[in-house]
């Protein structure tokens, strides 16, 4: 199994990021440009961001976890489709395909996040240190949530192709309601009552807790995120285990 997973990871590295450094450079540039755009736009309208005084740091703590979740969920959802030619071999299972995609994309995003935050701290000469425990916890929750959503969608999108477009439409507001450019604490109570049920807002809040020592984010509930993630993951695995042979025939 480890060799199979590694082979699938190497294949995806070659196909997704190319055989040159250009693909990985773009993997770093994309979030950098996203953070830079948010920083420029909101610095024109606001004197200070929601926390602190550095716009790139504030928006990076919201945008990067969201981007990691979104990419991981989408890549995991297409695991069977991407590795279909190899799943015909008895030694390769759908579990191998899922693990390979999850591991590669999680490691890639962690590396990108480290580079982007390191660059922000160096360029703007920001004081440290950063509380790493909440940061690692936030990344772990994002990885678990993205894997859970992606695994369930792997079954749904392979079984019902129309679900891929429906999912894209349904999740478009996620960028607006996941705490990327606002703080949960600043929202009206009625909005907070609804936003609390979005697991991503707990992840972005936890990430910001690590970078801003005075930010308590008392609304965060890690157990809720874990529960939602595991329910989605186990449901997706059960459906794939029961139907993966039929899915390969599609």
UniProtKB/TrEMBL annotation:
Question: Where is the protein situated, by its record's location annotation?
Answer: Cell inner membrane; Cell membrane
**What are its GO cellular component terms?**
ATP-binding cassette (ABC) transporter complex
| UniProt cross-references to Pfam families, sorted A to Z | ABC2_membrane (PF01061)
Membrane-crossing residue ranges in chain numbering: 21-45, 57-74, 110-126, 138-163, 169-187, 223-240
PROSITE patterns cross-referenced by the UniProt entry: ABC_TM2
Name all ABC transmembrane type-2 domain ranges: 22-243
Membrane topology type, per the record?
Answer: Multi-pass membrane protein
Q: Name one GO molecular function term.
A: ABC-type transporter activity
Q: Which family does the UniProt entry place this protein in?
A: Belongs to the ABC-2 integral membrane protein family.
**Name of the protein this chain belongs to:** Transport permease protein
Question: From which lineage does this chain's organism come?
Answer: Bacteria, Pseudomonadati, Pseudomonadota, Alphaproteobacteria, Rhodobacterales
């Amino acid at each position: 199994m480890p060799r199979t997973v590694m082979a699938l990871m190497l294949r995806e590295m070659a196909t997704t990021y190319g055989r040159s450094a250009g693909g990985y450079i773009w993997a770093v540039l994309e979030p950098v440009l996203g953070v830079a755009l948010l920083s420029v736009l909101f610095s024109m309208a606001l004197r200070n961001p929601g926390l602190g005084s550095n716009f790139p740091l504030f928006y990076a703590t919201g945008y990067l976890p969201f981007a990691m979740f979104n990419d991981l969920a989408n890549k995991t959802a297409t695991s069977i489709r991407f590795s279909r030619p190899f799943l015909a071999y008895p030694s390769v299972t759908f579990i191998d395909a899922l693990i390979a995609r999850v591991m590669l994309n999680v490691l890639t995003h962690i590396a990108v996040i480290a580079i982007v935050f390191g660059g922000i701290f160096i360029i703007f000469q920001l004081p440290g240190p950063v509380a790493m425990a909440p940061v690692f916890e936030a990344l772990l929750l994002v990885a678990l949530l993205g894997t859970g959503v992606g695994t369930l969608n792997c079954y749904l999108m392979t079984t019902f192709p129309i679900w891929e477009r429906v999912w894209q439409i349904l999740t478009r507001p996620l960028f607006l309601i996941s705490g990327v450019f606002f703080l949960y604490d600043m929202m009206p109570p009625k909005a907070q009552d609804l936003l609390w049920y979005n697991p991503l807002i707990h992840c972005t809040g936890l990430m910001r807790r690590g970078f801003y020592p005075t930010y308590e984010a008392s609304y965060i509930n890690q157990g809720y995120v874990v529960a939602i993630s595991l329910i989605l993951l186990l449901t997706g695995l059960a459906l794939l285990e029961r139907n993966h042979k039929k899915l390969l025939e599609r």
